[in-house]
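User: Assemble these into one structure.

Assistant: Restating your components, then the assembled model:
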Amino acid sequence: MKYSLFSLAANTLTKHKNWKPALVDAHPKAKYDAIVIGGGGHGLATAYYLAREFGLTNVAVLEKGAIGLGNVGRNTTIVRSNYLLPQNGVFYQHALSQWETLEKELNYNVMVSQRGVVNLFHSDAQRDAFARRGNAMRLSGADAELLGRDKVQKMMPFLDFDNARFPIMGALLQKTGGTVRHDAVAWGYARAASELGVDIIQNCEVTGFEISNGRATGVQTTRGTILSEKIGISVAGNSSMLAQMGGFRLPIESHLLQAFVTEAVKPLIPNVITFGAGHFYVSQSDKGGLVFGGDLDGYNSYAQRGGIYTLRDVVESGMAIMPMIGRIKLLRSWGGTVDMSMDGSPIIDRAPVEGIFVNAGWCYGGFKATPAAGLSFAHLIARDEPHKIAKAYTLNRFASGHIIDEKGQGAQPNLH
Amino acid sequence: MRINCPYCGNRDVAEFSSMGEEPAKRPDPQQADAQTAFVDYVYLRNNPAGPNKELWYHGQGCRQWLRVNRNTLSHKILGVSLAAGGDQNGK
């Protein structure tokens, strides 16, 4: 059913009793042309683009729980493309351009809000670095504007400009960045994929691969064996576990990232703000809560819950730029398991086992990449060659030396 | 999470930093497949969901490297020993 003002009016007349479910709760068939493991944002987007762009509709998405309960519903909803390296810049700018038209394409309100992303800087050296980053962004097709202190003060008078340790000297602004309602993205893609004939199978956990003569021919699941010649793994956080089932290892560690939300207050923060001297990013949801996050807890974890010391660190960073939040009450915190790759950049490539494809290693940045990751992964699965925007995201870049290390931290995932 | 340091006793995790899972033995640069072996050594991880043998540094305590066996699903510490003076089997 197409959502429109007309369908809303028609359903109002029948007292909203005739709305149909947004997606079909499918049962697994014996064989598919392609299987996508993982019903998160990336997996659902991949299935959607397989059907929509590449004509593969005999596709299953296998989700061990219910769709949208993993990282797609656990992030801080920020979308941006402010990357320094061209491999990332071009990819994330493509994603941002897809976000701009996604609602119309999916006929679903995902609440794309291009309210601007502001990266504050606090020293002369950091201004130079941000100016360089802004220039790199423009070369990749993104928009970037370097703001002086007075302009930032006009936009956000509540910031602590004269902080003794980290005075705010200005900011790098990406006007087209902003936020997107994250779980709506999962639902929008799921509904659109389901309408194109994709089977979205929930409560179906993959427990192993069917491999014969070095080639994957299907998956074993808690709901029986399902055959397919093409299997995509898109299970951020658990990528290494699926790789282990396939008999290979990945350049990934699973880490813990927490996010926090406060009680709802009146409109306060007009855009997305990031602290340049620590790790803190904040925006205000449409409900009114301040949504913010910071660093990883720093150790390997699959637990989806973190420690208080990280909260303390994040809140201290927040207080350093906006002391007013000291009086607001924290409502909820939660943790997600993220795939931290060895260079801080993702992997969209064939696995060492023929027939298996891997979409993994998204670190903190998976949500904003969802449309482009889905499109690129679908391209790789359908055509067996990488999409032009994701050519650099190979597995063998670690062997060949073509690593994409935005922060220059080396193979130490908890520092990316 | 608290780690029972052999020198300092039971301390909060915030005093420590994790270096991740303990790598396999460093390959011999002279061996025939040294290139592949080093790529594996530097970049690939087992990343288990469950007990994981890790190296931790007690930076805000005794500044010793520790071998910590820790469950990554529950954060339960299963064993701690000093990294110095022992091989990977704790000998």
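Chain B has one domain: 2-82.
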